[in-house]
Automatic annotation (TrEMBL):
Gene3D superfamilies for the chain: ABC transporter type 1, transmembrane domain (1.20.1560.10), P-loop containing nucleotide triphosphate hydrolases (3.40.50.300)
Official protein name in the record: ATP-binding cassette, subfamily C/ATP-binding cassette, subfamily C, exporter for protease/lipase
ABC transporter domain sequence ranges: 325-560
Gene Ontology molecular functions: ABC-type transporter activity; ATP binding; ATP hydrolysis activity; ATPase-coupled lipid transmembrane transporter activity; peptidase activity
GO BP terms: protein secretion by the type I secretion system; proteolysis
Recorded topology in the membrane: Multi-pass membrane protein
Residue runs in coiled coils: none
Amino acid sequence: MASKTLFQTTMRTARSQRFSLLVLSFLANILLLASSIYMLQVFDRVLASGSLDTLIWLSVIAIFAIITYGFLEFARRKILNRTGAWVASELSPAVIKRTISARLEHGRSPAGLGDVKDVRNFLAGDAILAFLDAPWTPVFITVIWLMHPFLGMIAVAGAIMLFAIGVLHDILTRHRASTAAMQMREVNNDAQAYVENAETLAGMGMVEAVLANWKRSRAQAEADGSQAEETSSVLYNLSRSLRLALQIAILGTGAALVLRAELTAGGMIAASIILARALSPVERAISAWKAFGSYRLASGRLERLFRMTADDQPQVSLPKPEGKLEVTDLRYFSPETKAPIIRSVSMKLAPGTLCGVLGPSGSGKSSLCRLLVGAWRPNFGEVRLDGASLSDWNSTERGKFIGYLPQQTELFHGTIAQNIARMGEVDDAAVLAAARKAGAHGMILALEHGYETEVGNFADQLSGGQKQRIGLARALYKDPSLVVLDEPNSNLDGTGELALQQALVKMRKAGQTVVVVSHVPTLLRHMDKIAVIQDGTVAAFGNRDDIMRDMMAKGRHVTAKSASQAAE
Ligand code: ADP
Ligand code: MG
């Protein structure tokens, strides 16, 4: 566990910018003093001596200092922006990948892209600048104090009051603002769900009712949010007035000191300029601290995500398996409730076997499919393909030899050809072969753009059956050794079903091992073996004819029993 996660190494690289940032900040803050020194010199030296030469030289130097300051400030921001963007681009794909694994293995993920955004915002934002400038506040206040202790006292009092207002602001608004933000997010998610389920809402006239509910929750979120904003604006104005008052206080006190000859006019002006610089990090402190807080939380969550999901093992290239499937004492518990979903399933299938899976809904057929293809990692037992446990393979490597058609076919954003080619490099010949085998070729050609039709992202107009046939072609792409089809006929019409039957026959001939969840007799007719799943276990497994005979007998028994019960 001592090894560094990708998150840690990324953050370490990001932190290596620290030194250059510190140097730039040091120089920038020194140069910030330039304008006050300029004032000091102009008032005390030029006005006293009347030397135009001195004025010109001073001005040239001051302008040079200010321009240099501009460049330094620009460089600081650029480093921060670049670091933030780099960290986000490094972490985002890794986080998506880890989120998928965490979701599969633990039911949910502790972190997501929102956390990457928080980390990025902190690294690239004003918060870091405030932290970098903060050490200069005491330096500037000391400079003022050295000019005159009275002025120094005003500066200290001002810093304390501004900080107090910031703390007050945080206390008064933090809770409200965060609940409001959370509620707003929920409200927006709801609205998104309504749009996605437009057909259901429109079809049953639910739009008005749903909107009435939605308006209520939105109004609540809005009320909390605007109250927090009101408090914010009151305190913001208070701190702005305080800053103006401090300027007047320091100038007024300065003038009084000038009259008493304890300070020069230049010193008075310079002190007021330095005061503004000194207080700026104080004002930004609270918001910087908050950004730091969310950064800390986000990086904690990301750290947990990277710790709980393993790095992919180095890829061992395995030869294409023949398709010998062995399942031993497979068990899977719900990641959330720990309730058993699959309890001790064992079975063996020789290459080229077609196995039908039957069972009531909720018995665990789909869960078994997910375990067979390695989408879920079993809590106990294993699935072996040609003797190698699925969990020992790198998932990309393994996936090439496996075809899977889930119960709900989802296509991804891209063309049909890309989807069939599993979003990787499109091998045209293999795409065509897979589509033909799945009986989808004619249907795809009939579309206006054929294989180049864009699908996914709610943009497509494909029917459930069309999607399922493309999904089947995707499962058959490049003739995988093991094919698992979860209710592949649920959306198919007569021709689709016929195509599926033909595909099954071809797969057996090609020696592919096929597991099909289906209750349709015309499909079952093609099976060699049948597994009956009940309550997460295999209630019966064997040759098709034997199982079918047993089931018929039981079926008659059950029918007879219910008939006699009905008669009572
Ligand atoms: P079938 O496909 O036979 O209808 P499933 O395999 O979909 O059944 O579901 C079997 C049981 O597992 C059900 O009780 C279901 O609630 C539960 N289940 C399915 N998916 C999950 C999941 N991701 N997390 C927790 N429980 C699940
Ligand atoms: Mg199912």
